[in-house]
Design brief:
With 641 residues, the protein is mainly beta. The protein has 7 helices and 37 strands. The strands form 10 sheets. Strands 1-2-3-4-5 form a 5-stranded antiparallel sheet, with no helix packed on it. It has a 4-stranded antiparallel sheet with strand order 6-7-8-9, with no helix packed on it. It is globular.
Length: 641
Amino acid sequence: SSSSSSSSSSSSSSDEPRVEEILLVHLSHSRGRGDDGEDVLLLLTILEHGDVHIYSSFDLTGEDYRWRRAALFSDLKQNASSLNHDITTTICTRFRRLEHGKIFRRFRPTKRSRMREDIPPTAHTVQPIHTMVGSDGLRRRLMLPFTRVGTHTGVFLCGDHPHFLFLQRGTVRLHPLAELAGARSFTSFHNINCPNGFAYVSNQRDALRICTLPADDWQYDLQWPLKKVPLRCTPHCIAFDADSGMFVVAVSNEIPAPLRGTAGETNSRTVPLTEQKFELRLYRGGVWQVMDTYVFEEQEHVLDVKIVNLKYDEVRGMRSYITVGTGFVQGEDEQCKGRMLLFEILMPNMLLRQASVRTEKAPVTAVTQVCGYVAMCAGQKLFVFDFHDSATLTPCAFVDIDFYAVSMKTIKNLVIVADLLRSVQVFRWRENRHGRHLVPLTKDWQLQELLTADAVVDHDKLGVVTSDAGGTLRLFHYEPDSPDSVGGQKLLCHGEYHVGGDAPACGVRLHMNFVGASTQAVRRARQAMLFGTQTGAVMLFAPLSEQVFKRLRTLQQRLAEQLAFAAGLSPLAFRAPRLTRTYQRVDSGRHKRRNIVDGDLIWHFNEIDVGEQQHAARASGTTTRTVMNNLLELARLAAWF
């Protein structure tokens, strides 16, 4: 059932938010494969500013139950004259609040200060939650239970940021609906053309939309919807071609290895030997159907796969190719060689055509593109090739690198190379009438065992983010005017952040979605880094404005002192970087290394009660509304799904 609360009394504090709607619902967990959760009684509330609180019921048992039951009976007996029910039937049922990590309120900037100066003030239209009152004067419900939407039962949350609430394996999961304008009403809908679907009214021109959830092969028991594609092999690299909508995946299978250089026949006691056989598969997007396959040579391992846009000719411009870097693993007695292969996707047959191949005397560990040319790292050298005639790879420049390149990324004419031992290097690509050159720009002088490195964009500033094997992220800046940079030859470290055992091994740059931003220039002003770790986790690294950073860093310190953590451990001490034998702090500016805010710690502010929020915000010199606006924009910046 759903009800609206009465107006707050004059004696209540003005800071206390008023409860606008309450819903008590009994949800059964989805009967899926491996789903062994229990049914849950949930209590959902919506506050006046739009926040949603979810509570789960539980019964007190044991000594705690007997103590609370005796205390309850004592209170009831004192007021027995005013009660009309039997006190012996009272049950001690309690509710505990569940953490969901979602912010449903609207963005409401203050008049004195704005978090983003590049967003026009007209983009921030403040509408209270009472706009859910219709033209007939009746208030619409925001929380609508449903049954049989697909194979799920749950609650739909209307508003500017509509969400589905599912109960999966005894855990509450919230998944957003991809409707930028928001949803006004919702109902389940079953038809022969739309089996077990749903319908909702969008806030954009009051449009009625009829939809269905994806097929049953999607799983909703994680924070993101997940679909597993059975490959029956081990994937190593994946790339997406936007022009053809195809996925390129490098996979391997274990096959029996022949006995090389041994005499005699094998018997039943011989240990079977296996080796990996690599192949390149072309998958059709959406259905994940194998369209074509390329099998590599024996003992050839795929090390990197990228989609590159190369210069084709002066008339037709650029053309996309699949670039693959490989290496031959033949033991310590033979030299490890490698190849770089270029493939082209033939449409509409969706086939792979080998456009060119080049053999190197060292393994090709990383490939990428720079200004219409293809670049590769082979051994201790970085080569740049021209593929203008679409037939042969013509070398046009090279430069020596340190030890072993594990990652290579480009942004405009800059090439960022992550080394296995000697940290990161940045090169500049120059092309003029005098020739084409790769010029060393700057590097980190420390020794780091890097896993990946990439650039992070913040308006007109460019930084370099690295991840080492010890699980530490470092942010570097190129400052040639600083005396510590030795004329720009040295990258200066401006931030360190320890992520623990989940060391990021790969990353991709994504544009950040600003609240109310209407132009592509505003969206591209900042770019975030989405990292994938070795254990399968995903983490986000995003730049902040100076004003928001100072506010959140102060709030981080207050939350670390105010909240109680497991075993009394300090989250700030855990995020401190670990010094290794190869990496030591020899430069100055230690205070600059604290320029990264712990998002996991800051997000606890959304989960604590209102009194603790006001206390933490007041101790940080700000207000709850301002902090929630900052958290809301951070949540919307990464709203890609």
